[in-house]
Amino acid sequence: MRLISSIGKWLDERLQIGATIRETAEHEVPRKTASWFYVFGSAAFAVFIMQIVTGILLALIYVPSAGQAWSSLQTLNHDVALGWYIRALHGWGSDFMVALVLIHMIQVFLFGAYKYPRELTWIVGVFLLLVTLGMAFTGQVLRFDQDAYWGLGIGASIASRVPLIGPLIVNLLLGGPIIAGATLSRFFALHVFVIPGLLIAFIGVHLLMVIKLGINEWPMPGRLVRKATYIKEYHELTKKDGMPFVPGAIWKDLFFSALILFSLAFFAYHFGPFGPSGPPDPTIIQTVPRPDFFFLWLYAILSYLPASMETPALLIGPVVGILALLLLPFLSGEGEKSWRRRPLAVLTVLLAVVALGTFTHLAQHTPWSPVMDAWSGIPIPNQFLKNRTALERQGALVFQVKQCHNCHSLGNEGGKRGPALDSVALRLTQDQLIRQVIQGGGNMPAYGKNLSPAETTALVAFLESLHPAGQPPARDASRTIALGAETGGAASSSP
Amino acid sequence: MTLPTGISRRALLMKLGILFNSIVAVILAVPVVRYLLSPISRGRKDGYDAWVPLGNLDKFPSGETRLATYRNPVVNSWDGDTADIACWVRNVDGASYQVFAINCAHLGCPVRWFPQSNLFMCPCHGGAYYQDGARASGPPERGLFEYHYKIDGGKLFIRASEMPTPGQASNIVRGIQPCA
After folding, report:
1. Are A68 and B78 inside 8 Å of each other by CB?
2. φ/ψ (deg, to 5) at B158
3. CATH 1.10.760.10 domain extents, chain A
4. ipTM of the predicted assembly exceeds 0.95
5. Which is more confident, B167 or A166?
């Protein structure tokens, strides 16, 4: 014991940081901020340290070469002892870190912690969110598989839409004319050197300000922030009702970080590493590229935006969003902190969470994508074939062979791109069905050139049989009159 | 010592030192920036676009659309499979051809050909195209990208080098379009 303390003394005599560390550890924080709500930032930091360690471990094996990256990941997964587990930790660590940063941000927003004098802490935090997302995206690229390859293609296609210089940005992004070795090398440099450097620098500034300005006090409804008096009030609060950060507050951070790291270890063990999916060979086109979890919402938005709005929304949307986050502390730098008296803030968070959550959920089911093998892999359910005429069954065959099933579902099976056809006969008359099949429209291709008259007749006969028992199909009332038939009803189904 | 201008000698020397460093920084920045911009400036060299063979014409029967692959003309030895690019070749009537890029005109995912319904479908956001590459439905704003082609000695050649995107780098840098 004596030896340790004398070594410590010897070191501190030379380093001269003992006093600073003690001062930092023992600085008073408001008693109420030692709360379980204030643990997310430190947990994100703990996961970041984990990411650095596992990242370095992966770099011992990983080869950042377009020709070999994928097979080096296979080696990591299968040949290196526990290589799969280190990959799983790094992959899940990425998801954990993004999630914790988002939760931390929501907490800071709802507790008004971005207000005076912590505006810059918030702004640096916004940059921390951006670089964290940057790490997640570039990391996904380093998992150089099919998803990474086509994900890069999507990134390039978005970048190419920038007016005038878009195509040049694409070449800079890819490091050449196509996605190839140079692309992976530059994403490796970004993921391993550039962005982590920024991340560490931003974290340093962020933490320095947290220590210098003090942890945000627990927001009390009615206690307003005023620039003239805030600092004095805060110091009075910490003096009157404060306690040293260590150990008063930090034990909760330690408990929560341990819980998070344990969950991470468990997730990695239980769910395993992310991919890699198929090799990054662009001649293998039997692939359905999907982005990682935290970019799924973007994937959904890209398929729902009308074509005319897509480019402006893609290019202007992120700028507006980031600007709004950066300007927030300037627009409401004073006043009420408590979320109990800031209904708009609560609604904003709810709206963002519900919107992003809904888009993410949709992107996990991709109702907008054709099911590429539905026509050959998903049979028409029996109830749509029972008691049908030969012509109608012939039409069912046309329905399969012409890939209608890829976009239209029957009995909830098949594509969701177009409307479900379980009861289409209730909505469209025979003439409308023929017109829709032949001319398309409303986001459906025209099949006029690809169907013989006999095929069209059979297909429409099948479609007309798609209505619930007891509900007659739609019919054109004027048609019976025009054709001079006395009895209605029969006309709509006569060929 | 203070000069008649009121600036001390040391302050002046420090300013000179900053000036020298700024000059060196600018001198060093020029090669750094040119190095970083090499993916753009390299495009000015001849041979960036090249006629690449897709194979003998008998691989592409009349009236059918077949997948073809080629090795990208701009390539490094460590590119691996990524420099092997696929495209769709449509033999229209035995005499004229259409060669479509594999990349969807929306966001670049690989489109698949369905000969039964004569449609190209994209697995990502549901873009669909007719057999002549025209937009049929979905989010794409235009039809499929089409390569220029020529027939030489019984072989089909296309002009290629660059991943087609809604905006084309070659349009700006050289005024040549590898893809229409």
Report:
1. yes
2. -125, 155
3. 374-493
4. no
5. A166
In terms of residue numbers, what domain contains B12?
A: 1-36
- C-alpha angle B166/B167/B170, rounded to 5°? 130
CA pseudo-torsion sign A81, A82, A84, A86: negative
Q: Does residue B121 fall inside a structural domain?
A: yes
Residue B45 lies in a domain: no
C-alpha to C-alpha distance for A493 and A467, rounded to whole angstroms: 13
The residue count for chain B: 180
Mean per-residue pLDDT, B48-57: 86
Statement: residue B171 has pLDDT above 60: no
B84/chain A closest Cα distance in angstroms: 6
Q: To probe the interface with A, which of B85, B125, B161, B179 has the most A CB atoms within 10 Å?
A: B125
- Over 80: is that where the pLDDT of A490 sits? no
Q: Do A150 and B109 touch (CB under 8 A)?
A: yes
CB-CB under 8 Å, B114 with A67: no
Q: Taking the C-alpha atoms of A311, A312, A318 and A324 in order, what is their torsion angle to the nearest 10 degrees?
A: -170
Whether residues B72 and B123 fall in one domain: yes
Q: Looking at residue B136, which CATH number applies to its domain?
A: 2.102.10.10
- How many structural domains comprise chain B? 2
pLDDT given for residue B125 in this prediction: 87
Residues B3-12 have pLDDT tens digits of: 677 788 999 9
Name the closest residue on chain B to residue A144, using Cα atoms: B82
Kindly state whether residues B110 and B56 are assigned to the same domain. Answer: yes
Nearest chain B residue to A145, by CA: B82
Instruction: Calculate the alpha carbon distances from B134 to A282, A303, B144, B165 in Å.
Output: 23, 19, 7, 16
Query: In chain A, which residues fall in CATH 1.20.810.10?
Result: 23-365
* CATH match of A374-493 with 1.10.760.10: yes
Chain B touched by A114 (CB under 8 Å): no
- One-letter amino acid for residue A134 of the chain: G
Q: Distance (Å) from the C-alpha of residue B76 to the closest C-alpha of chain A?
A: 7
B19 and B77 fall within a common domain: no
Could you tell me the pLDDT band of residue B43, with boundaries at 50, 70 and 90?
A: low
Interface of A with B in 212-271 (CB under 8 A): none
Asked if residues B122 and B104 have their Cβ atoms less than 8 Å apart, the reply is yes
Kindly determine whether residue A66 and residue B130, on different chains, have CB atoms separated by under 8 Å: no
Range with the largest mean pLDDT of A78-87, A235-244, B123-132, B164-173:
A78-87
Question: How close A99 gets to chain B, by Cα (Å)?
Answer: 25
CATH architecture group of domain A23-365: Up-down Bundle (1.20)
The confidence band for A74, taking pLDDT boundaries of 50, 70 and 90, is: very high
Question: Closest Cα of chain A to B95: distance in Å?
Answer: 21
- Highest-pLDDT range among A128-132, A146-150, A167-171: A128-132
